[in-house]
Design a protein that fits this description.
The complex is a heterotrimer of chains A (184), B (720) and C (326). Chain A has 184 residues and is α+β, with helices and mostly antiparallel strands. Chain A is 20% helix and 25% strand. Chain A has a 4-stranded mixed beta sheet. Among the domains of chain B are: 189 residues, 3-Layer(aba) Sandwich (Dimethylsulfoxide Reductase, domain 2), CATH 3.40.228; 123 residues, Barwin-like endoglucanases, CATH 2.40.40. In chain B, the strands form 7 sheets. Chain B has a 7-stranded mixed beta sheet with strand order 5-4-17-16-15-6-7, covered by helices on one side. In chain B, strands 22-26-23-25-24-27 form a 6-stranded mixed β-barrel. Chain C has one domain: Formate dehydrogenase/DMSO reductase fold, CATH 1.20.1630.10. Chain C is built from 13 helices and 2 strands, in the order H-E-E-H-H-H-H-H-H-H-H-H-H-H-H. Chain C is globular and about 65 Å long. Chain C starts with 7 loop residues before the first helix and ends with a helix. The chains are: A alpha+beta (184), B alpha/beta (720), C mainly alpha (326). Chains A and B meet through helix 1, strand 3 and helix 5 of A and helix 2, strand 3, helix 3, helix 7 and helix 8 of B. The complex binds ligand MGD (2 copies), iron/sulfur cluster (5 copies) and molybdenum atom (MO). The site of one iron/sulfur cluster has 15 residues of chain A, from helix 3.
């Protein structure tokens, strides 16, 4: 019998395709009841140059579901934890709202939920993923910037993209082992 | 998507799995709530009509997801589509019919029953008819699935004045392409290798499937994109070449391209011989239009124009000069679009993969209703006389307003508005307000308290698209589709779909017989002839029928007759000559702003549709207000810094707005987003926030089509 | 993010925790140093003991109310996460606070204990089991020295912890060096010393003795010097470090916190008191006579040290959060 390998969810992003349309952000808000004023994902806009020689790039970002999540490490109650499949989550009932994890995340991926007074962050839409669906931001994206999948599944589009295309992670020097892979 | 339909379970019994999973991550969600996943319907937040699968939890819409079955929406749902939920649950939406009690625009309302609202409006309409005839009424609307019922009511009532939105949008483009090819084709951006877009900001002005295909084409296949726009937009950022072209000079650029292609013999001779008329005249016509000449007009280097012309012709037939959509820029707009059409024609990209492709359709049935008599009077805008080539059934908005204001040739005293916000979508808000003042009656059918509704006498709240069932709509294209909009949740307030609103009025106007059907009967009749068995059931279950295979070349045979006067592609147009217009596009330089003034240009943002959505919280969070883009050079001269308050004025009006000093615009232009500076306090987040461009825009139209020319306004700026 | 999520309550908490640690440390030192079998500086020792429990208690209280979910704070004590400085710190603070309480009890005179117990309303007192009352009345004064010894490592740990809480966060380059913990520790001890200088100067019953002042000044000068020689390498090291750290340091070297850091902390909070104390100490150093005690100077110096300790924490809490890898 073939051995069932452990899943490791990750995301590949092709930023060149991102048109800064914000569909991913609004989809996330709707799917996950994210309150106004805070966000689980964002588009980093970089501008350079002077008229008429201008450049502008867009990089979507959210929680990197780090291999060594510093947010989990500092959490005093164990509310922040990492699943077997790599997804980093918060058990809202155990969160005391100390915000230590917000500070400890080098990617500024977490926020204090002004309604529940606990901490929130991207869940990789675990509730959808567990039913074989795609995260809301991935599904809704017009230009299919985002590819979600299992790193350990050689048949997945994600795996194949990483095998065939040059890529990088954001700020590897954080030592967190981020799992959002940006195609070059 | 099949999986989703399997999950579409309408009872409380199943999907315990989903619920328990949810409660695991979202503590407070109760598992007793029944969950319906994937109810297919069709987005209504802009004209694209993307297919949607709605997830409903209990009786609350939880999430809208894209329906990949529609090749036009290509499995996406944009930010606005996602935010539709907030229209439904907006605490400030229209919840029941209302009749004005104070002065117009004062905002004093009396909530009334539907009967009262219908009686009131019917009385007023009848009074107008008695006094001025049915032509004394104006019926204006913007496209939508139920627009047909509204238009029909106006027609059955006997009014010739059915005013639709194309003359504020794309009519110069559609007319130009129709006059050339007999039809308006699509552009195969998915397969094209070389694409030129002039002011078609496709990555912010979302048009399906073009936006997605352009990204797919340029990023995955490395197709080349050349983009001309006085602004550095997202599309400019993604383009291989961006030229901040001098506004109004696009035609010079195009004519010079044609000049180079013909001079170098790069045109498709075989195609031109077989399918077109008037190429010889064109050869002579473009002789003076050299790239060097065009450089002076466009400020784009002649070498670049020549290079682009060569690259374009070499890439043909997989090369397109994209038509653009909101085409109404200048008074020569029609001729500029004609030049585009001709450029496309001479490289022979017609009906080829990666080229320009005539649209196919999906067949659907029609509900047979009792026909009414044609109106006795002719249109108040005298379209037949002034714009004989344009579509009389859509009207010419700006010309119409002039006529109504003058009472010429006859008075128009009652105005019904459906799904339109003329106070913002028609240039010169001051004039539109005057037109409202002279109306004896204004009735508005909307889902929100738009500014136009705010000035109405009676408001009929329509049910939101997620609360109603609409007719089947066919979307022509390279991948044609027919889509269906079905009720996802019951109306949560005392609102009604347009058809029922129309029926209530029809009954009181004695027009009952023309509207004696239900929406189900209507849809059933349409579904019967869909190219699919059990059409109605299919639509309810899947929301879409579509052709996912593109077909190329069906019109490329000698026998094909184009729907033009000659039956050929008309490079030279006799009909234009007959109507007193240039039969070949002649370049006339557009006026440029005098020193100290700036040209106001308009454009879109991906999170906003027209004037209508900027108040929704999730979208407002992304763009909380509008400001005036101004290049650092003039800003420096005037001592203006970002954040400074400015008074901006034109001959139409003035507004106060904050400055955004940015390199992303030409020094002779300014730009502001549409959709802010609202007068209606019910639109909390845009009320008195930012400024309305419609106040500044002056009245000007394209000479041939009558399409509102919206980049003709020069404004002065003073720091306050 | 980049908007601070930890604000003044955390600054206060770090300051107050450190102050308690400092007070206890100096008191314990004063107890441990003996002269003829008795504590060398009983007044310092006693005052330190009397004061030590309160700042940390207040600080913890503030911290709890800074939580998003204050009523869940108990969750901290149903788990232990050795990798989380906050988890370790919470336990540490509880133990330390209990110890300072016991130590305070040990430093009370029997009458004072009785008086204190009498504060408890009679009705309530009657209900307390005799056993507990007996236990409370227990005289711990023999244990003073043992408690002081036991408390040393705890006080030092608390002092370090307030720094480690920040320093352990790799995500914030401004913090992420072991020098922060050391800086916080010595600053904590120094604020404790300064507080005791103040208290002794204001103590009218037991006017301050020369030897006591000399002890406190010596201690404080040493602490300030050590702190200064931690701040210096912190800056040099940071300036020579990776880009992220350099960027972070820009906040105090030409950014929003430059004035606060250089003028308020380094100038007013560190060097000025050092100079004052050295000036007062000069006769001793030069062998020209006893220590000067100009109460005005002494009060100024001590006040500035305390201010400096607070500003240090302010700058670190806010500048640190503004720093990052981008
Ligand atoms: N200044 C300026 N003017 C412009 C443009 C511009 O860019 N700038 N663009 C032009 C173009 S291209 C176009 S197409 C037009 C568009 O012009 P309009 O069609 O007037 O555009 P909107 O501002 O979207 O107004 C639509 C109205 O319909 C309402 N509505 C939405 N959904 C429904 C519904 O289901 N039922 C009913 N009954 N009402 C509904 C909305 O609340 C809103 O009040 O504007 C043109 N005018
Ligand atoms: N997000 C979003 N998408 C939409 C809509 C929406 O409201 N919101 N509306 C839909 C509708 S109805 C329409 S009609 C389309 C409109 O879509 P488009 O046809 O793309 O029109 P605009 O976005 O108005 O873009 C006009 C651009 O032309 C530039 N421009 C101005 N003057 C000149 C000139 O002289 N030459 C050149 N080359 N460029 C010039 C402006 O700077 C602006 O960027 O968008 C559709 N898609
Ligand atoms: S990105 Fe931040 S929140 Fe996400 S796993 Fe990494 S450290 Fe934790
Ligand atoms: S805020 Fe909540 S999840 Fe974050 S560290 Fe504190 S307890 Fe853990
Ligand atoms: S994966 Fe889900 S939670 Fe994460 S950003 Fe996307 S939509 Fe939001
Ligand atoms: S939905 Fe896709 S294209 Fe749009 S902003 Fe997000 S990642 Fe970019
Ligand atoms: S483009 Fe966006 S708003 Fe328009 S129909 Fe599609 S999803 Fe709806
Ligand atoms: Mo439009």
């Amino acid at each position: 019998m073939a051995q069932k390998t452990k899943k490791r969810y990750a995301m590949v992003l092709d930023s060149r395709k991102c048109i800064d349309c914000k569909a991913c952000i609004v989809a996330c808000k709707a799917e996950n009841d994210v309150p106004l004023g805070v966000f689980r994902n964002r588009i980093i806009v970089e501008k350079a140059g002077e008229y008429p020689k201008l450049r502008m790039s867009f990089d979507p970002e959210q929680c990197h579901h780090c291999e060594n999540p510093s947010c989990v490490r500092v959490c005093p109650t164990g509310a922040s934890y990492q699943r077997e499949d790599g997804i980093v989550l918060v058990k809202y009932d155990d969160c005391i709202g100390c915000k230590y994890c917000i500070i400890a995340c080098p990617y500024d991926a977490r926020y204090h939920n002004p309604e529940t007074h606990t901490v929130g962050k991207c869940t990789f839409c675990a509730h959808r993923v567990d039913h074989g669906e795609l995260p809301a931001c991935v599904e809704t994206c017009p230009s299919k910037v985002r590819v979600f999948g299992d790193l350990n599944d050689p048949k997945s589009e994600l795996h194949q993209l990483l095998a065939s295309r040059r890529h990088q992670v954001m700020n590897p020097q954080t030592g967190n082992g981020p799992q959002l892979y940006y195609l070059l | 998507m099949e999986r989703r339909f399997f999950m579409q379970i309408l009872g409380a019994s199943s999907l315990v799995g989903v619920n328990s999973a949810c409660s695991k991550w979202f503590g407070k969600r109760s598992s007793a709530v029944p969950y319906r996943l994937g109810i297919p319907t069709t987005c209504e937040l802009c004209p694209n009509k993307c297919s949607v699968l709605a997830d409903v939890k209990g009786d609350r819409i939880h999430k809208l997801n894209p329906n990949p079955a529609n090749p036009k929406s290509r499995g996406m749902l944009c930010a606005r589509g996602n935010a539709a939920i907030q229209q439904v649950y907006d605490p400030d939406r229209l919840k029941q019919p209302m009749i004005r009690v104070g002065a117009r625009g004062e905002g004093k309302w009396r909530t009334v029953t539907w009967e009262e609202a219908w009686d009131f409006a019917a009385e007023k309409l009848k009074a107008t008819r008695d006094k001025f005839g049915p032509e004394g009424t104006l019926w204006s609307s913007t496209e939508g699935f139920q627009e047909v019922f509204f238009k029909n009511l106006g027609q059955a009532f006997g009014s010739p004045n059915i005013q639709r939105h194309p003359s504020l949008c794309l009519s110069s483009m559609t007319l130009a392409y129709s006059m050339t090819f007999g039809t308006v084709p699509s552009f195969d951006l998915l397969k094209a290798d070389y694409i030129i877009m002039a002011g078609a900001n496709r990555f912010e002005s979302i048009i399906t499937p073009d936006t997605m295909d352009l990204i797919g084409g340029t990023m995955n296949r490395k197709a080349k994109l050349v983009y001309l726009d006085p602004r550095f937009t997202v599309t400019a950022a993604k383009a291989d070449d961006w030229f901040p072209i001098r506004p109004g000079s696009d035609m010079a650029f195009i004519l010079a391209m044609i000049h180079v292609i013909i001079r170098e013999g790069k045109h498709d001779k075989a195609f031109l011989d077989a399918f077109t008329l008037g190429f010889d005249q064109l050869v002579e016509h473009v002789k003076p239009y050299t790239p060097e000449w065009a450089e002076g007009e466009t400020e784009i280097p002649a070498a670049d124009i020549t290079r682009i012309a060569r690259e374009f012709a070499d890439a043909a037939p997989r090369a397109v000069f994209y038509a653009g959509r909101r085409s109404s820029w200048y008074q020569n707009d029609f001729q500029m679009r004609r030049a585009q059409a001709i450029l496309n024609a001479i490289v022979g990209n017609w009906d080829r993969e990666g080229g320009m492709v005539p649209n196919r359709k999906i067949a659907k049935g029609e509900f047979m209703f009792l026909p009414w008599d044609d109106p006795k009077a002719s249109r108040v805008d005298e379209v037949e006389k002034d714009f004989p080539l344009t579509s009389a059934k859509d009207g010419v908005y700006l010309s119409l307003r002039e006529h109504v204001l003058k009472g010429q040739p006859y008075p128009v005293k009652a105005w019904m508005v459906y799904k339109q916000d003329p106070l913002h979508s028609v240039p010169d808000q001051g004039k539109t307000l005057k037109m409202m003042e002279q109306m004896d009656f204004i009735g508005v059918i909307d889902i929100a308290m738009s500014d136009t509704a705010w000035y109405a006498d009676v408001i009929f709240p329509e049910s939101h698209y997620l609360e109603r069932t609409d007719p089947i709509e066919v979307m022509p294209g390279i991948w044609p589709a027919a889509v269906y909009r079905q009720q996802v949740v019951k109306p949560i307030h005392d609102t009604k779909p347009c058809l029922e609103i129309v029926q209530g009025l029809a009954k009181r106007l004695g027009l009952n017989d023309y509207f004696d059907y239900t929406i189900e009967q209507w849809v059933e009749a349409e579904a019967k002839e869909l190219p699919i068995p059990n059409g109605f059931e299919h639509m309810k279950k899947h929301g879409v029928v579509a052709s996912t295979e593109a077909k190329y070349g069906t019109t490329r045979n000698e026998a094909h007759r184009f729907i033009t006067k000659s039956g050929k592609i008309e490079i030279f147009s006799e009909r234009l000559a007959e109507a007193g217009h240039d039969p070949l596009p002649v370049y006339t330089p557009q006026p440029q702003p005098p020193s100290g003034k700036f040209r106001l240009v308009l454009g879109r943002k991906a999170t906003i549709t027209h004037a209508g959505l900027a108040h929704l919280p999730w979208l407002n969070e992304q763009v909380p207000t509008n400001d005036l883009w101004l290049n650092p050079v003039p800003a420096g001269q005037m001592g203006i810094r970002s954040g400074d308050w400015l008074e901006v004025s034109s001959t139409s009006g003035k507004v106060k707005i904050q400055a955004r000093v940015t390199d992303e615009i030409r020094p002779d232009c300014v730009f502001m987003l549409h959709g802010f500076g609202k007068k209606s306090p019910w639109l909390k987040r845009t009320f008195n926030n930012g400024a309305a461009d419609a106040i500044l825009l002056e009245t000007a139209w394209d000479k041939v089509s009558g399409n509102a020319a919206m980049h003709e306004t020069f404004v002065s700026i003073v720091k306050t | 993010m980049r908007e601070p999520v930890w604000e003044y309550l955390i600054v206060n908490y770090l300051f107050l925790g450190g102050l308690s640690a400092g007070l206890f440390f100096v008191s314990a030192l004063a107890t441990w140093l003996q002269e003829e079998g008795r504590p060398a500086f009983p007044h310092i020792a006693r005052w330190g003991a009397l004061l030590a429990p309160w700042p940390v208690s207040l600080g913890s209280f503030l911290l709890i109310f800074d939580l998003g979910k204050p009523f869940r704070f108990w969750k901290l004590f149903f788990t232990f996460h050795w990798q989380s400085p906050m988890s370790i710190g919470s336990w540490l603070l509880v133990i330390f606070t209990m110890l300072t309480m016991a130590y305070l009890w040990a430093w009370l005179e029997p009458e004072e204990r009785t008086r204190l117990l009498n504060f408890i309303p009679t009705k309530v007192r009657q209900r307390i089991p005799v056993k507990v009352v007996k236990w409370l009345e227990h005289d711990l004064s023999f244990w003073r020295r043992e408690l002081a010894m036991a408390g040393f490592p705890l006080a030092v740990s608390v002092g370090i912890y307030t720094g480690v809480l920040l320093g352990a966060v790799q995500a914030r380059p401004f913090w992420n060096t072991n020098l922060v913990a050391q800086m916080f520790l010595f600053s904590a001890l120094s604020t404790g010393t300064a507080t005791l200088i103040l208290v002794r100067l204001f103590d009218k019953k037991q006017p301050v003795a020369l030897a006591e002042m000399r002890f406190l000044y010596t201690l404080d000068i040493c602490l300030i010097l050590i702190e200064f020689f931690i701040v210096l390498p912190y800056l040099i090291h940071g300036k020579l470090s990776v880009l992220a750290v350099q960027d972070a340091l820009a906040q105090v070297l030409g950014g929003p916190f430059t004035f606060t850091f250089w003028v308020l902390f380094l100038g007013c909070g560190l060097l000025t008191p050092l100079l004052i104390e050295l000036y007062e100490f000069k006769p001793v150093l030069l062998g020209q006579g006893p220590l000067h005690i100009n109460p005005r100077w002494a009060i100024t110096a001590a006040g500035l040290v305390i201010l400096g300790g607070y500003v240090l924490r302010y700058v670190f809490v806010f500048a640190g959060q503004a720093s990052g890898f981008r």
